[in-house]
Design brief:
By secondary structure, this protein is α/β, with parallel strands linked by helices. The protein is about 45% helix and about 15% strand. The termini are far apart.
Length: about 110
């Protein structure tokens, strides 16, 4: 998860912890990066759903090594990165989503 202008970054090793932080931090989180498969429930899909409840325009980048069949049904083909990946792919995905959000907000003004 990232706050404000992408800094500081905060790693959440457990999905429950990430959800608690999302609910507590509300608007201070600028976006999230989540794996979609965790060893325990809730999944990365669940973390992202909570993020979008907190902030409907929240950018979410999903990472997976085996989730391709779920992408279309979850409505996220543009924001998926398949493992293995290089860090530049992550940077591009985050930048595009943040820029899309900024462009959308500017269009509403």
């Amino acid at each position: 998860m990232c706050h404000g202008n992408l800094s500081p970054l905060r790693e959440m090793p457990w999905s429950e912890e990430a959800i608690e932080h999302l609910k507590a931090a509300e608007s201070s989180i600028a976006g999230i990066v989540t794996d979609i498969r965790f060893a325990e429930f809730p999944s990365g899909w669940d973390v992202a759903r909570i993020a979008r409840e907190v902030g409907p325009e929240m950018p979410v980048v999903y990472i997976s090594g085996d989730g391709a069949p779920d992408w279309a049904s979850q409505g996220v083909p543009r924001s998926m990165i398949e493992k293995p990946f290089v860090i530049s792919q992550l940077i591009v995905a985050i930048s595009q989503l943040l820029n899309d959000r900024t462009a959308g907000a500017a269009a509403l003004e």
